[in-house]
């Protein structure tokens, strides 16, 4: 190769790796800090069915089937293949579209020529359930525009395109507003906004319901992996650190490493100067420590962990001081909170915080040792020893019992008796994960599998494609599905229920904190236990319960591990594992 070709090649390499190379020439000289790129992609999806329309009169609405065909996102002058919506003195035109599953994003509308070349006014309503898309924003059933606009009026262009909305939804209602108005609508496509990342983890067993639950939890979190890691894509589009723990556990099991986790953890840290607590809650800074511990074990990123040292060690020393002379947690200067269903029970909150503080300081001692701070490590260990001398009564609180068990303050079998009382009554979508973990600690793997089927399973039977902010098994009686209009005499599972901050339609039907069965099934049924930072040592210890087999994959920084566990005729389990170089496997059959 001559010198000229070498110079041209080097020029191309430098140009293509320059931070400005992807910008048009007009942006030459723009600093990279002035340009923000999105981590997400956009895909366009046509609706899968027309669920409802105001009238069957073709003078008002016709050719709705045109909207169900794949679109191209382009207006044209052909004057064909459009849905006609027309308001008359007798009827108004409105339609309800179903996109088949929960999505994050908005709506793209392509119009044909309108009367007089004037814009046409419409009302757009997004809904996570069919009934929410049919609702009004009022004080009756909690429909809101909180966090994301989901109900508004807009004008559509003559022979053009308009994109509108940024929320979580499955259903969209479109109403033509003005008297004697006419709309020729060529396309109404969902704009699906998500991170285009592979599902490296997988789970398949002899129970198709468990398989669907695993994938639904994974998909729920995937939708919430936006610019930051949110808790909900319709409402609670925020970084709630406590809510993140089930989500980061799911991400580790399904997607492996993701910068959305560290970016969100760092945001919480940077906006919370000590001695404040993250999100104003005494427990949420504890969740930050626990996530840091778990994330380091999975990814082994010591450089990132070291960046947390100054803040983390100060936070741990702050928590060490929050224990009174009776060896009781004395956490104050923030909201004392576990989850919403337990929030009215001060004794349960105290018992839960006692256990959670012990969990946090145990993890903190490990982190302090890794970060070469033996003084803080010793203080954390001494504080945990003190907390174990005072074990509050959880009474009937399953949240408190779970945390006391996981912290080692309460015997696992004693806690499991509380957790098993009345089956999955008094479960919650957030703390259900810790109830499952505590049951596993007691060796009640079959009880955990049954709880997953009986608590998360009914959401799927009601039409859910993502898991909800909350769910109460008592809501099932005479409840309607979320993918149908509520029949006469039925209860609206979305609009009629909910509590605290999630009453009625304000209730989020895609909440990442509800994904706990996904990492639980990976850890205890597929059997993957991380034993060394960076997944360099994995213990495979499956508990199949009543399953005949389970197979799947698990992402590690060194590559994907493939596992198949098969129950043999003699009752034992055969474990087959394929692991990448550098990952040591310990089989526990």
Quick structural summary:
This is Alpha-L-rhamnosidase. With 589 residues, the protein is an alpha+beta fold. It is built from 15 helices and 16 strands.
Provide an overview of this structure.
With 589 residues, this protein is of the alpha+beta class. Among the domains are: 42-193, Jelly Rolls; 534-587, no CATH class. It has 15 helices and 16 strands. The strands form 3 sheets. Strands 1, 2, 3, 4, 5, 6, 7, 8 and 9 form a 9-stranded antiparallel β-sheet that branches. The protein has a 4-stranded antiparallel β-sheet with strand order 10-13-14-15. It has a 3-stranded mixed β-sheet with strand order 11-12-16. A hairpin with a 5-residue loop joins strand 14 (559-567) and strand 15 (573-578). Helix 13 runs antiparallel to helix 14. The longest helix is centred in the middle third of the chain and has 25 residues, at 346-370. The chain is globular.
Based on CA atoms alone, the radius of gyration comes out at 27 Å
By secondary-structure content and strand pairing, the structural class works out as: alpha+beta
User: How helical, in percent, are the residues?
Assistant: 25-40%
Determine and state the CATH class of the domain at 42-193.
Mainly Beta
Number of helices: 15
The named CATH superfamily of the domain at 42-193 = Galactose-binding domain-like
What is the CATH T-level topology of the domain at 42-193?
A: Jelly Rolls
CATH architecture of the domain at 42-193: Sandwich
Domain Glycosyl hydrolase family 78 alpha-rhamnosidase N-terminal: 87-184
Protein name: Alpha-L-rhamnosidase
Keywords: Signal
Pfam families: Bac_rhamnosid6H (PF17389), Glyco_hydro_78_N (PF21104)
């Amino acid at each position: 190769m001559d010198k000229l070709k070498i110079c041209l090649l080097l020029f191309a390499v430098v140009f293509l790796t320059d931070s400005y190379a992807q910008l048009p020439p007009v942006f030459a000289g723009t600093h990279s800090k002035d340009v923000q790129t999105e981590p997400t992609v956009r895909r366009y999806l046509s609706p899968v069915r027309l669920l409802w329309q105001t009238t069957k009169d073709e003078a008002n609405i016709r050719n709705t089937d045109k909207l169900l065909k794949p679109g191209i996102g382009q207006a044209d002058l052909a004057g064909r293949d459009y849905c006609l919506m027309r308001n008359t003195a007798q009827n108004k035109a409105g339609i309800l579209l179903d996109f088949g599953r929960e999505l994050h994003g908005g709506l793209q509308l392509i119009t044909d020529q309108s009367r007089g070349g004037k814009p046409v006014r419409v009302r757009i309503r997004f809904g996570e359930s069919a009934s929410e898309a049919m609702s009004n924003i009022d004080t009756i059933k909690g429909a809101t525009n909180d966090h994301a606009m989901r109900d508004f009026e807009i004008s559509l262009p003559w022979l053009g395109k308009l994109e509108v909305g940024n929320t979580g939804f499955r259903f969209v209602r479109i109403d033509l507003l003005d008297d004697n108005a006419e709309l020729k609508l060529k396309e109404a496509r969902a704009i699906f906004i998500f991170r285009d990342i592979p599902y490296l983890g997988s789970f398949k067993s002899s129970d198709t319901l468990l398989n669907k639950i695993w994938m639904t939890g994974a998909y729920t979190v995937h939708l919430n992996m936006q610019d930051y890691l949110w808790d909900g894509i319709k409402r609670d589009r925020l970084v709630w650190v406590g809510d993140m723990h089930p989500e980061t556990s799911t991400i580790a099991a399904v997607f492996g490493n993701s910068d959305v986790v560290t970016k969100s953890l760092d945001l919480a840290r940077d906006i919370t100067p000590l001695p404040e607590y993250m999100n104003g809650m005494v427990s949420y800074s504890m969740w930050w420590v626990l996530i840091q511990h778990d994330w380091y074990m999975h990814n082994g990123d010591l450089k990132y962990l070291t960046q947390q040292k100054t803040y983390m060690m100060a936070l741990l020393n702050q928590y060490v001081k929050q224990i009174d002379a009776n060896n009781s947690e004395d956490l104050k200067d923030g909201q004392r909170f576990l989850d919403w269903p337990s929030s009215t029970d001060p004794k349960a909150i105290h018992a839960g915080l006692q256990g959670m503080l012990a969990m946090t300081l145990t993890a903190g001692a490990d982190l302090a040792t890794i970060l070469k701070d033996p003084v803080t490590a010793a203080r954390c260990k001494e504080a945990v020893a003190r907390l174990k001398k005072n074990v509050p009564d959880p009474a009937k609180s399953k949240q408190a019992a779970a945390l006391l068990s996981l912290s080692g303050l309460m015997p696992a079998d004693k806690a499991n008796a509380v957790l098993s009382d009345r089956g999955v009554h008094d479960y919650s979508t957030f703390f259900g994960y810790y109830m499952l973990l505590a049951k596993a600690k007691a060796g009640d793997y079959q009880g955990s599998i049954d709880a997953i089927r009986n608590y998360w399973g009914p959401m799927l039977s009601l039409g859910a494609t993502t898991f909800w902010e909350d769910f109460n098994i008592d809501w099932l009686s005479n409840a309607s599905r979320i993918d149908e209009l509520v029949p006469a005499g039925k209860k609206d599972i979305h609009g009629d229920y909910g509590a605290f901050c999630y009453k009625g339609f304000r209730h989020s039907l895609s909440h990442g904190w509800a994904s706990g069965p996904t990492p639980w099934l990976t850890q205890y049924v597929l059997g993957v236990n991380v034993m060394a930072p960076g997944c360099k040592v994995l213990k495979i210890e499956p508990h199949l319960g009543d399953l005949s087999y389970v197979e799947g994959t698990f992402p590690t920084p060194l590559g994907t591990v493939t596992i198949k566990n098969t129950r043999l005729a003699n009752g034992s389990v055969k474990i087959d594992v394929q692991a990448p170089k550098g990952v040591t496997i310990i089989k526990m059959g």
